[in-house]
Amino acid sequence: MRRRTFGLVAAALAAPGIARAAWPEKPVTVIVPYPPGGNNDIMARLLAPTVEKEIGQPLVIENRGGGGGTIGAGAAARAPADGHTLLFADIGILAIAPHLFARLPYDPDAFAPIIRLTEVSLLVGVPKDSPHRTVADLVAAAKARPDALNFGTPGPGTAGHLATQMLMSLSGTKMTHVPFRGSAPAAQELIAGRIDLLIDGTLLPAVNQGQVRAIAVTGASRSPFTPDLPTVAESGVPGYAFTSWHGVVAPRGVPADAVQKLNAAFNAALREPAVIERARQLGLPFAGGSAADFASWIQAERQKFGPLVQASGARVE
């Protein structure tokens, strides 16, 4: 009898037309593939309250750092595609790493785009007591002593890594790479003066507090958040332009209704006045838009960074 009852229930659940429970059925896990303190982590925690209100379930944020974000991305790619696991991804994971790493713990196409959150011009930061007050100063010192200066990054394959590789390539310099497990520990080493350079998107608070000196921004134009800072191109490295970005993805195969609800919830969070003000303080300009927009953006960025990574000579085995 038990066997027959189980069989009838199983058949009924598998029958066409039987509606599954409405998404979300439980809390949604958000994998942040970097340690606490970086932009991905900040964005996740900043947007979570509004998103939770919009979808009616809590967001459980899990920091899984390492491998320039690839370890956390691999965990997200292997999660069930039911809409209850998200990844706070970025340019490094979705556009740079496929060209930079010889092996990845995930298929770069294993994700369904949800929304692009930001497009960020990075800050070129040096210790507050550094003798290098401009990019030209830094380039001159690096040319005079190849590999003597060291630069930090949040890890191999991150935006800061490739942005610095691009700087070295276009300026004809060589510096020594010191990778960290995220932006926060790299920034602490810069503040302490133990590294000579960090190009990163999380430095604005430290700059405003006088802990770090910013000497340029990486975008093609000056940032509205730091209008007095020149671009790297203005500072003597013609052709240099680099912006980072962040976005939310889910394992490929996630239900369409979950994508739609998540996209609407995150767009709502990006419109919250308090969220906008906090993002302004952090130097994080918002993007937003549809899931389809983000899908097109990822493909275009991946195609753009293939030649850039190859030209930089960067490779992680």
TrEMBL record:
Keywords noted in UniProt: Signal
InterPro entries recorded: BUG, Bug_dom1
Pfam families recorded: TctC
Highest taxon above the source species = Bacteria
Q: Which residues form the signal peptide?
A: 1-21
Q: Does the keyword Magnesium apply?
A: no
In which family does this protein belong, per the annotation?
Belongs to the UPF0065 (bug) family.
Descriptive protein name: Tripartite tricarboxylate transporter substrate binding protein
